[in-house]
Design a protein that fits this description.
Largest sheet: 8 strands, parallel
Distance between the termini: 42 Å
Oligomer: single chain
CATH topology: TIM Barrel
Order of helices and strands: HEEEHEHEHEHEHEHHEHHEH
Strand content: 5-15%
Shape: globular
Structural class: alpha/beta
Number of helices: 11
CATH superfamily: Dihydropteroate synthase-like
Helix content: 40-55%
Radius of gyration: 19 Å
Strand order of the largest sheet: 8-7-6-5-4-3-10-9
CATH class: Alpha Beta
Length: 304
C-alpha cells in the first residue's frame, strides 16, 4: 500500500495521465502550469497580458522556459462585475488558436462558463480549470462530451461574489469532502476518472490560516488518488504571511510550491516560470523522481 491508500499498481494507474499530446506520470513527475491572463483586472499581473499579442508572447515564452501547461484566463474568480460570456470567449479562444498553431503544449482554460469551455475545446484546449468545482452541471456535460480533462477546484462562493469571513469545522477535511463529492458527480455525469484532476483552492474563500493549513496538510488532498494541483503563486496568504506586496512574493511562492510538492502536489500553477521550473525539477531530484542533468562534482580522480 502507499500513502494514498491505494495498492501501488492502482496508484500508478490513477496517476498516469495523457492530456492533449503529452503523457504524465504524476506518481513521479511535477508539471508546471503557467498563468496567462487576458484580463485587465487580474490580481497579480494587472493586465500586462491583456492584449492579444502580449498574451500569446507570454504563453510561448513560458513554453520556452519549461512550462508543461499554459492556463489561459479571460475572467477572474475574484469579486467584481460579471463579464458577458461572449466577451470571455473573444478573449480566450483566439489566444488558444494562436498557441496551438505554434506549440503542442497542454493548453488549459480557467473558466466556469460552459460556453467558454466548449469554444475553447473546439479551438484546441486540452484542459478545463473550473474554479467553481463544476457548480454548473452543464460544465460536466461539456467536458464529458469531449476528450478534455477537468480540474475540479474547491470554492464556496458564486463566481465574482465575496464571502465574508469564511469558516470551516476543519478546512482540510471540508475541502476533501467537497472534492470527493464533486468527483462522484463528475463521474456520474460521464467524465472518466482518468480525466479528473483536483485543486484545494488556496485563497478561494479561505483566509491565510486556511491556506497555510491546506499547504501543510496537502497530503490529505493528494490521498484522494487524483493528480492534485497547488495554485499558490503570489497569492494573498503569502503576502500576509511574509508582509510582502504582490510584486515581492516570488520567493514565498516557490517555498509554498515546494512544500506542496513534498506533500503530494503534482501540478503547480505559477506566474514566474523559470524559477518555478527549477524549483519543481530540483524537488523531483531530491525525491528521487529524476536524475541530475549531469554528474561531475567529485566524480573523477580530481575534485572539481
Amino acid at each position: 500500500m502507499t500513502d494514498t491508500g491505494l495498492p501501488r499498481s492502482a496508484e500508478r494507474l490513477a496517476l498516469m495521465r495523457t492530456i492533449g499530446a503529452h503523457s504524465f506520470d504524476f506518481s513521479r513527475q511535477v508539471a508546471v502550469m503557467a498563468v496567462v491572463n487576458r484580463t485587465p483586472d487580474s490580481f497579480y499581473d494587472r493586465g500586462s497580458t491583456f492584449a492579444f499579442d502580449a498574451a500569446v508572447a507570454a504563453a510561448l515564452a513560458a513554453v520556452d522556459d519549461g512550462a508543461d501547461i499554459i492556463d489561459i484566463g479571460g475572467a477572474p474568480f475574484a469579486p467584481g462585475p460579471e463579464l458577458p460570456v461572449s466577451d470571455e470567449v473573444d478573449r480566450v479562444v483566439p489566444v488558444i488558436r494562436a498557441i496551438r498553431a505554434a506549440s503542442d503544449v497542454v493548453i488549459s482554460v480557467d473558466t466556469f462558463q460552459p460556453e467558454v469551455a466548449r469554444g475553447s475545446i473546439e479551438a484546441g484546449a486540452d484542459l478545463i480549470n473550473d474554479t467553481t468545482g463544476l457548480r454548473d452541471p452543464e460544465m460536466a456535460r461539456v467536458v464529458a462530451d469531449s476528450d478534455a480533462s477537468i480540474v475540479i477546484t474547491h470554492s464556496l462562493a458564486e463566481p465574482r461574489t465575496p464571502v465574508a469571513r469564511p469558516t470551516y469545522d476543519d478546512v482540510v477535511a471540508d475541502v476533501v469532502a467537497f472534492l470527493s463529492n464533486r468527483i462522484d458527480a463528475a463521474v456520474s455525469s460521464g467524465i472518466p476518472a482518468a480525466r479528473i484532476l483536483i485543486d484545494p483552492g488556496h485563497d478561494l474563500n479561505k483566509n491565510t490560516l486556511h491556506s497555510l493549513e491546506l499547504t501543510r496538510r496537502f497530503g490529505e488532498v493528494a490521498a484522494l488518488g487524483y493528480p492534485a494541483l497547488a495554485a499558490v503563486s503570489n497569492k494573498d496568504f503569502i503576502g500576509e504571511t511574509l508582509d510582502r506586496d504582490r510584486g515581492d512574493r516570488v520567493d514565498g511562492s516557490l517555498a509554498a510550491a515546494v512544500v506542496a510538492i513534498m506533500n503530494g502536489a503534482r501540478i503547480i500553477r505559477m506566474h514566474n516560470i523559470r524559477p518555478a521550473v527549477d524549483a519543481a525539477r530540483m524537488t523531483e531530484a531530491i525525491l528521487g523522481f529524476r536524475a541530475p542533468a549531469y554528474l561531475r562534482h567529485n566524480m573523477g580522480d580530481a575534485n572539481d
